[in-house]
């Protein structure tokens, strides 16, 4: 599997924030599944191992850029999507939810498939049997909802505990609006 730059890309760069496009030929899925069955791995294990080898080739081809030498990294950290959606048996049970988490994964960078596949098989097997994915999903949900959750919790707490809040602190001259409720002074 080799990556080729689009014609519009005139210069090769090391991995940076600059956007580049690349493509590869389609994989023969029947051949991939046969290989995976023979080697007792998943299609995900295999394709990630190919990415590992492709990254090695990329870094090897870009070891020297503008006179500066770069080392081939041992791994590359990525956020790999992991779906938590449960399969459904009937169409009316289908729910349009987005229960997935981007798990932090270190993809090893190796020259040969025989070097990368065993490492990734072991790593992905551990991930499939781990509860980490649920923790990552909950941390994601909390971080997205955090700016909206804290004011709501504060309002709920205060309104459940107190009828009146008295303070000798200087109050704002303009009304604060929390959860659709204005407060002045």
Strand share of the residues?
A: 15-25%
Low-confidence stretches: 1-13
- Total DSSP E strands: 8
- Widest β-sheet, arrangement of strands: 1-2
Helix content: 40-55%
Report on the architecture of this protein.
- It is a single chain.
- This protein is of the alpha+beta class.
- It has a domain at 4-130.
- The protein is 41% helix and 17% strand.
- It has four helices and eight strands, in the order ββααββββααββ.
- The strands form four sheets. A two-stranded antiparallel ribbon has the order 1-2.
- α2 packs across α3 (113-128).
- The longest helix has 30 residues, at 132-161.
- The N and C termini lie far apart (67 Å).
């Amino acid at each position: 599997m080799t990556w080729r730059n689009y014609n519009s890309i005139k210069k090769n760069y090391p991995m940076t924030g600059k956007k580049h496009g690349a493509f590869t030929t389609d994989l023969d899925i029947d051949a991939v599944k046969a290989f995976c069955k023979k080697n007792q791995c998943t299609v995900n294990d295999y394709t990630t191992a190919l990415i590992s080898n492709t990254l090695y080739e990329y870094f090897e081809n870009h070891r020297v850029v503008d006179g500066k030498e770069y080392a081939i990294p041992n791994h590359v950290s990525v956020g790999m999507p992991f779906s938590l959606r449960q399969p459904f048996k009937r169409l009316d049970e289908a729910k349009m939810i987005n229960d997935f988490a981007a798990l932090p994964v270190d993809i090893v960078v190796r020259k040969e498939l025989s070097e990368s596949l065993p490492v990734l098989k072991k790593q992905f097997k551990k991930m499939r049997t781990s509860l980490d994915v649920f923790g990552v999903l909950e941390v994601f949900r909390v971080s997205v909802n955090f700016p909206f959750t804290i004011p709501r919790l504060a309002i709920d707490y205060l309104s459940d505990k107190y009828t009146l809040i008295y303070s000798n602190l200087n109050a704002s001259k303009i009304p604060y609006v929390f959860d659709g409720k204005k407060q002045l002074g």
